[in-house]
Structure formats: structure tokens, C-alpha cells
Amino acid sequence: MGRQTEPSAHNDPRKYGNIHDTVFFYTGSKKGYTWNPQYTPYTREYIDSEWTELPNGRFFKGENMLDPRGSMASFDFMGTTARWRTNHDGMMELWNAPQTNVPNSHGRVLLRRDGKPRKRCRIVFLDELPGVSLQSWWGDITPLAGGSDERLGYPTQKPLALLERIINASSNPNDIILDAFCGCGTALVAAQNLSRQWIGIDISPTACRVMAKRLKDACNMRESEAGHRKHDTSSFIVRDLPWTIDKLRKIPHFEFENWAVIALGGIPNAVQVGDMGIDGRIFPVGTKPADQHSMFAGDWFPVQVKQQDKVGRPDIDAFEAVMERENRQRGFFVAFGFSSDAEGECAAFHKRSGRLIKLITVQEILDEQHVQKM
Ligand SMILES: C[S@@+](CC[C@H](N)C(=O)[O-])C[C@H]1O[C@@H](n2cnc3c(N)ncnc32)[C@H](O)[C@@H]1O
């Protein structure tokens, strides 16, 4: 039975409470796209008001044979193409089907005593209809509540039913579904449940770990390179999961610099030598892209990266000189670890100059803890 849930209320100060999400629908071409109509169940109120229940629990009603467009003017009826016309007293009558073929009221046509069909003569059973064709307002899928079994704790997780509906409408079994921002993998689970192939991408290693666990728990899948090569549909691989501390220690220094600067959301230096003590720059959100590439861009923060276990005071001293030369209020220093001297020096520098050096460890980046320091 259909259930339109009560919409929740949202108190947005000084504007209408925002209680909906918008799903954008795009197609590659006007014609060549998959479209499988979706339906929602009828509401209890509608069934009670329009349908009659039979002793066997089925609901039926009588409908006109002729609809206003005449599409029911002829139809296949017990092996005969039957036609209907309106007789002098406004009743529909069957005029080219042999009388012997006209069923009694236990069949699909309700007849009058005289054997002619009644006006609303065609019997329709509720359980043979697909439901209400889905409209652009979806009130039957609720946001994930805090206590929901489906909830994994991923902040932007979407309901599985939502993704299943979208995938059902726009693809067929064995098609490939791509979710390039797949978070905790709701679209992947939906695609797997619906026998589609899928590819998921997410920039966050945490998301990748959460989605891999979810595919194992919810879909009983295995993480296996071998199974994947054999097109085993119950296995998947997590590819290019970025870095481990071990791997980061071994990669070439310039690659390590790039990795660290990009992980902080910055832009690495194009030139590896003569960087004047700056390995990359972070531009605050809102800086115009054109400005970002200008050496003279007003607002940016320098990043210094060392592929070392314990960065000490001399390196911090050198970075302080860079901050003063460039007149920067804030800068970031990335390494595997820092000595207590280094930390003390940053505090002293802040006291003397008001400038702030944030020390960020590789482990903090891998654990996504660095964001709080930014
Ligand atoms: C709104 S969430 C998706 C939630 C998902 N529908 C679910 O149910 O879990 C968006 C995701 O996009 C990821 N993301 C952001 N920027 C990205 C990028 N440039 N490339 C890939 N993923 C990115 C984020 O890490 C986040 O997990």
C-alpha cells in the first residue's frame, strides 16, 4: 500500500524551511537513453473510495470500454478482435464479436440482464495494474533517520531506495553504472542488488574503506583481484587506494611533495628546483582560478614539505624566513613527524610575529585529521 510520509519540518531562519533535495536528470541524447517507467503503490484512501473488494481479497472496478481517445474501441477479446459502439440508449454494445464469445459477468465484461454489456463494463483488477506512474515529487522515500539500520554514519549517505529507483528507471540489468562521487557506496550496493555492473570513485580513502566494507557486509561480496579478472560478479577490487606510510616513504621526493600539497587542497609548484622554500600554495576558497596561477596573487598560504621523520628547528627557521619574505600570516609544514624543538619554535614565532605555522603529519593526512588544523 502506498505511503506518502508526513514531510519533516526544518527551521531555516528567515526563509522557507528546506525539506527537499533536487535530483538532476540528464541524458546523453534526446532519444537514445534508457527509460523504464516507475510506479508507486496506490494509496489506501484511493483504493477505499474507488475499488470494491471481492471475498477472495482482490479489488476490482468497472471501466468504460471506450476511452475518450477511442483507444479501447477495438481490442483482442477471447481470440476475436471485438469492437464496441454506443447504442441508442448510451450503452456500449459489442457488434462484431459472435454472441457465443460474450462472457457472462464472471468474466471480464459486466453484462446487463439482456446480455448486453453495461456502461462501465470492463472489469479491471487492482493487482494487475502497475501502480501510480511516478511523478517528479517523491514523497515516499524518507531521509535516513538517525536510528535507521541502513545508516553507516557517513554524513551524506543517501537512502538505498532512492538509488535503486534511479538505477531501475535509467538502466537495465548488466548495464554499467558509474558513480564518480560515491561516498559510502549507496549507488554501488543498489547497482549490485539490481544485477548491474558498476564503477565507484571517491577522492576520500575513508569513503573507499567504508564502501568496501559495506559491499562485503550488505552484498556478500569478496575483495579479490583474481575474482574480478574472471568476471566473477560477487567480487570487487579497490584500486589506487592512495597511500600507506610505507609507500609514501619510498616514492621520489617530488612525488611526495605533490601528494602532500594536493592532499591539503593546494597547488604544487610547477618547478621543482628554485622553489625558494615553497613547495606549493593553498588558495582560500573563492579565489578566482585565474588569480591562483599568478605569482602575485594576493591571498595564499605557503606549504613546505619534507619527506623526513623528524623535522627539527633549522627547517622551521628556514620556513619562518620564507613566511617573512613573502609576508604570509599562515603557512603549512608537512612531514612524517616533528621534534619538540620544532613545535616550540613555531609557538615562539607566533608570539614574536603573529604569524602561524601549522605542523601537519602524514599520518594526520591519511586519517583525514588535518582538516581540523586548516
Ligand atoms: C554527497 S557525497 C556522496 C554520498 C553518496 N551518495 C552516499 O550515499 O554515500 C559526495 C562524495 O564525493 C566525494 N568527492 C568530493 N570531491 C571529489 C572528487 N573530486 N572526486 C571524487 N570524489 C569526490 C566526497 O568524498 C564524498 O564522499
Structural features, described:
It is a single chain. This protein is α/β, with parallel strands linked by helices and 374 residues long. It has three domains: 44-128, no CATH class; 149-236, Vaccinia Virus protein VP39 (Rossmann fold, 3-Layer(aba) Sandwich); 246-373, Restriction Endonuclease, CATH 3.40.91.30. It contains eleven helices and 18 strands. It has helices at 44-50, 160-170, 186-193, 205-219, 225-229, 245-250, 253-263, 289-292, 313-326, 340-353, 362-366, and strands at residues 39-40, 52-53, 59-63, 74-77, 80-86, 92-94, 109-111, 117-125, 132-133, 176-179, 197-200, 222-223, 235-236, 267-268, 280-282, 301-305, 330-335, 356-361. A five-stranded mixed β-sheet has the order 14-15-16-17-18, sandwiched between helices. Helix 5 (225-229) links the parallel strand 12 and strand 13 (235-236). Helix 2 (160-170) packs across helix 3 and helix 3 (186-193) packs parallel to helix 4 (205-219). The structure holds S-adenosylmethionine. S-adenosylmethionine binds next to loops.
